Amino acid sequence: MKKSLLFSLSIFVLGLCVAPRAEAQNIQLYYDAGRNCATSTVEMFRPDSFGSTFFFTDFDYAPKSIGAYWEIARELNFWQESKVDWLSVHVEYNGGLNTAAGSFNNAWLAGLTYSGHSKDFSKTWSISAMYKLIPGTKDALGRGQAHNFQITGVWGINFAKGWCSFSGFADFWREIRVWQDTEFIFIAEPQFWVNLNKIKGWDKVNLSVGCEIELSNNFVDRGFACNPCVGLKWTFN
């Protein structure tokens, strides 16, 4: 799976950044050349007067299994007109299942997010430091370690007069895995998109074509893994 299943959003997950005031909803479809499977992603970002909400869901269509992953995050910022509008309270839930591997552990997160942007919002970024509760986690000896942490960074860059976008996220967290040699996990998923609505006469064709690189260490596989993906994205205005 993507993100904490081998997702991601893109996060175009730049949706976690509180600063922009534009809404974003999109559907993505990927072919994962490294794992020889398809993944679809639906995501939404919506700001309001109290902060912002972001969610996505992934479906992973492997040859012998189907998996699903769900994540929803809320940024709380009641002080948007103050000098510390760059700081927000972050709460999040994620979990999923797989027809071959069974259910994945539910995770509950809470912490603080620092976010920022350029003057024209062509560049956005955020970093979150969070406490992560994973009630079902156990090691090979059956010992639990529910209390963990996670650090997440997110970025989004639009350039070449809107023709291209570079976005992604990086996660580093602690979680006991029965089949892993270490309890520390890292994943990152940078994405590059070419936005076809910049073609003359295609202004209503909100289709992007691009690629994603899924980078991980001790996530699904032991050690380092790199899975290249190609994809399509349709953005709803």
Which SSEs are present, and which pair or pack?
Layout (H helix, E strand, L loop, with lengths): L2 H4 L17 E9 L4 E12 L2 E12 L2 E12 L10 E12 L3 E2 L3 E11 L5 E11 L13 E13 L4 E11 L9 E5 L2 E5 L11 E11 L6 E13 L1
**Proportion in β-strands:** over 45%
The largest sheet, given as strand count, sense and whether it forms a barrel, is: 14 strands, antiparallel
Return the CATH class: Mainly Beta
Low-confidence stretches: 1-21
Query: Which overall shape is indicated by the principal axes computed on the Cα atoms?
Result: globular
Core attributes:
Porin; 14-stranded antiparallel β-sheet; globular
Any overview of this molecule?
Strands 1, 2, 3, 4, 5, 6, 7, 8, 9, 10, 11, 12, 13 and 14 form a 14-stranded antiparallel beta sheet that branches. The protein is built from one helix and 14 strands, in the order αββββββββββββββ. The chain is mainly beta and 237 residues long. The two termini are 27 Å apart. The protein has one domain (3-236): Porin, CATH 2.40.160.
In short:
With 237 residues, the chain is mostly beta strands. 2% of the residues lie in helices and 59% in strands.
